[in-house]
Specification:
By secondary structure, chain A is mostly helical. Chain A contains 20 helices and no strands. Chain B is α/β, with parallel strands linked by helices. Chain B has a 10-stranded mixed β-sheet with strand order 3-4-5-2-1-6-11-8-12-7, sandwiched between helices. A two-stranded antiparallel ribbon of chain B has the order 9-10. The chains are: A mainly alpha, B alpha/beta.
Amino acid sequence: MISFSIHILTTNYFFAKTLLPSRFFFDVSFLLLTTVMLVLVFIVFYLFYYLNRTSKKTEIVRLYSDIISEIILCETDEELKEVIAQLDAQKIITHWFAEPVGRKILIQELVKIHKTISGKGADNIRWMYEHFGLVEDSLNDLASHKWHRKAVAIQQLAEMKQIKYLTKIYKATNSKNKWIRTEAQIAVVKLTGFKGLRFLNIISHPISQWQQLCLLRELVMDHEYSSSNLKSWLCSTNDSVVEFTLRLIKKFMCFELQKEVVGCLYHKADNVREAAISTLTEIAADETPWLLQERFASASRKEKLLILSVLKERGVEEQGSFFRDLLCHEDTRIKTAARAALMRIAESASNIYNLPNGVEQKADVA
Amino acid sequence: MNLNQLLYHLFTYGILIFSLLLVVFYILIAVFSTLETRQYILKNRFIDYSTLAASDHAPSLSILAPAYNEGATIIENVRSLLSTHYNNFEVIIINDGSKDDTLQKLIPVYELVLTGHYFHPHLATKKLRGIYKSANPVYKKLIVVDKENGGKADALNVGINIASNQYIVCIDVDCILEQDAMLKLVRPFLESEGQRVIATGGVVRIANSCEVNNGKIVKVHLPKQFLPRIQTLEYIRAFLLGRMAWSRIDGLLLISGAFGAFDREIAIEAGGYDHNTVGEDMELVVRMRRYMEERNLAYKVAYIPDPLCWTEAPATFKILGRQRNRWTRGTIETLKLHKKIFFNKNYGVIGLLSYPYWFFFEFFAPLVEFTGFVGFILFALFGLIDWPFFLSLFLFVYSFSILYSVFAILMEVLTYNQYKKRSEIFKLLLMAIIEPFVFHPFVVWSAVRGNIDLLRKKKSWGEMTRQGFAQKPAVKNTAVAQ
């Protein structure tokens, strides 16, 4: 609620009058009203320009969509060349291909469509991107001093799988600009999969949660898992690298790194310890519930709650007494979580009771 | 200089400095909001929200929607919430002791059955009557809570208690959300490096006269009625300029109660919504910020300029007056509850800048203005006014107010451009011209009445009659606290 109370000045005119002559206020008012008029004229022209630009863009996009559809359907190089030859004969298309706006829209459309298709169609899109020299446009943007143009260019080159420019992109993975850095990191992973994660060896900036989600998406999509560096990243001095590695271990269920993950339960950073607890849910071994129980005593409140939520899923009947002790805990949230875990284990135990004869019944959590 | 002269000069220069500071603040707000919005829009050009929509790792959300006598539209409202474009969420409808058939309508449509939902009452609330879940797996994300009437804050606290997810999104059940609203709202929580984002908010827009189909805005129009139309300009100014500027310096004290997301853990630790204020939305943000500041924890309250939520604005002076009266009382109550942070350097930006701004220019300004107006009439009656000078000063202030509004319109056109017709822009300009004479005095008067009502210890929300979107019948939306 921003009140528009500036005109209190009007009611206090007799105070201001002692300081400034009325001529001054008339002059300033004239200046302000002139600015209002100028802004209005600008808005009118901008709206005209906007509508014009929007309709032009719609027209170009429609034109391109026909061409792109034809290109996608081509099955051989001959067919591609034939379609291109037809395009060369159409003046309107060659006109837009030569115009910066037309090329910009073409790149946007190609990138957008490339994200949604695969196989020969995607190959054809990339071929078109290279054939019309649109790579040069992206490289020009990459060389720009404007961070947003650089970031978009990196995204385009990566989407179009321009692996020959990997070195240029890789240089940006530790850029001072957050957005350039983020896009470059995603790009190298998109281009080279797990190998691209080598930037984790040198990165000096933290990796945000958002960035971690984006990287995971790229890694999961179509790249083969490789665990060669995971162990060393778990020892990184950059806490966010350790946290991300734990996420990778969880996602790809790297059981062989269980010991190292347990080590992370005692890491100095809160988020790493929390990620380690969460990771152990997926790569739990027989001793995991007991390790978590052992960690519980010295854990922070948040970790304690997290451990209890993991134990709710992975706890064993023999831990019943541990949960029961927590029912007297002074912290009500911990008490509640312990009760929930106990109930869950009791539920599992009752399922055991329902098993056919011969199955041992355990009464610890009854 | 005798005592009378000293008092006269103190008052005179005090008012002058106050007014000049206000003008300076408005200029700074315009500058900061421009910088912040520009950066956001450039950044948004290459952000792919589908990453979040499809990810199993997306943070979990609990959408809390209190409902009081919403029987006429509740089915559609819930359907709209369930169709939210997000992967990992639950919807909790809190029936706050409705006197109509809100709950009875929900039960058969969503195949609700009474369940023994297990939760811990972190926050004290009024008594619960029952928790319902759907027997149909299609609606597995829906939880309906029936409780005794306790007001919006109490209903939201029940929602916080029952919520099982990391973040809570508090919304007015009759608001219309953009398809990607949750994705955009959640992103700031994930983007932060080194700071914990404790709350995020988005722009609320006015939906009167917009075309609505299946719970979604299909075509945006400038409201046809005068009051909603003038409020459209006011909202653009407040959300696109004011809040973005405060967001730039991380000094936001208010996230709209109509649509905001909060870190559930911090909300609980801070004590949840306060039942004793009618400005519970602002009060919670201030309290959460205080909680973080007092523990020296790095944090941020984020804000995004995208129009994410559409709401119906009051169309009559009666309803508008009640709303503004309540806003004033809510502001004063919050400022009073947290007076400790006033010019307290231990609270950083909020102590030295945000709180004083709210105190002087949100709470105090209408009172100064009203006093000045009464004084002006008296001086005029006694022939003490130098009319040429008055006119020059009046023209200056009036032209400044129009310029500020026109700048807000320009920002709207250059960024989200919701009103694409030139005629709509001119209508907005017309509102900017007449607002200081028609709308603003009424808002000031409502604020003064809010002050009086607060002194009389009035606690009610006041009845908010809504007309409903499109051709829907009129709906009574009464929210009465305690």
